[in-house]
Amino acid sequence: MTPDSGETHLANVRQITFGGENAEAYFSHDDQWLTFQSTRDGRACDQQYVVRVDGTQLARVSNGEGKTTCGWFLPGDRRLFFASTHAAGAACPAKPDPSKGYVWGIDPYDIYTANRDGSDLKRLTNYGVYTAEGVLSPDGTRIVFTSLKDGDLDIYTMSVDGSDVRRLTTTPGYDGGPWWSPDGTKIVYRAWHYAPEDSAGLRQYRELLGQRMIRPNRMELFVMNADGSDQRQITRLGGANFGPSWTPDGRRIVFSSNHQNPRSRNFDLFAVNLDGTGLEQITRNPEFDGFPMFSHDGKRLVWASNRGADRAGDTNLFIAEWRP
């Protein structure tokens, strides 16, 4: 598959999945496998899968109950962790009331670990509220994640065995999507905070949160040190900016955004410096592009996209060689 016009950083674009909703694909440490979430096999909500980067040897990791999200390979690539709602019920969580407009459901995820074939499933957290979006630190010792466990959507870290939980963010409003820098010293994340004078906005946010929903139409990118210090805003683009990760050299952030038309569902991938300068557009397809991750060797980029879909709404995984 050839890249869209203007996608000069992407070469030899290849589609990995075909049909359904497939998203949040993240590389194993040896760059030979991906873990991702999918509604394949006629399922009404996501389960967690692994697949080789060439699209072969697809296998389900999660137990087929509830809904899953945000998988990641543990050191050695033999086990993974991911978030699942199955402890709250075998059925898919109820979808948000359409009368609320465009909202995301804050489902009761907790984080689990399992072998790559799905065996030996173990529960890592036990909060019974939204606890997901986990990413492993580069040294393999800690997990950063987002949780509602203290009443707001905040960012935490914990040891890989679930111990030593530390809260990093406390500002009222949404903080999520955390991702370690390649050297493990910083964390990038998405957030929307409310100024003291915007008491009505904060009240509406909390009312939705009480109904286990958020309205994700406004998000900007922030960065902080790995211990939560020096929190600072990177982007001021408007619209929804989310799914941040890092270039392999740790100097830039790659993310998805609809800031060019905030009322649109056309998201593209962009890159930006840590001080907010040097904004560069990576994808130019008139459909959704999101959840970017570089391979550990820095040679490839994987992401999810609606491009080339056989049916409206299909989201598939794509991989490309990266041209700096």
From TrEMBL:
It comes from the Bacteria. PANTHER family: PROTEIN TOLB (PTHR36842:SF1), PROTEIN TOLB HOMOLOG (PTHR36842). Belongs to the TolB family. This is Translocation protein TolB. It comes from Roseisolibacter agri. The lineage of its organism: Bacteria, Pseudomonadati, Gemmatimonadota, Gemmatimonadia, Gemmatimonadales.
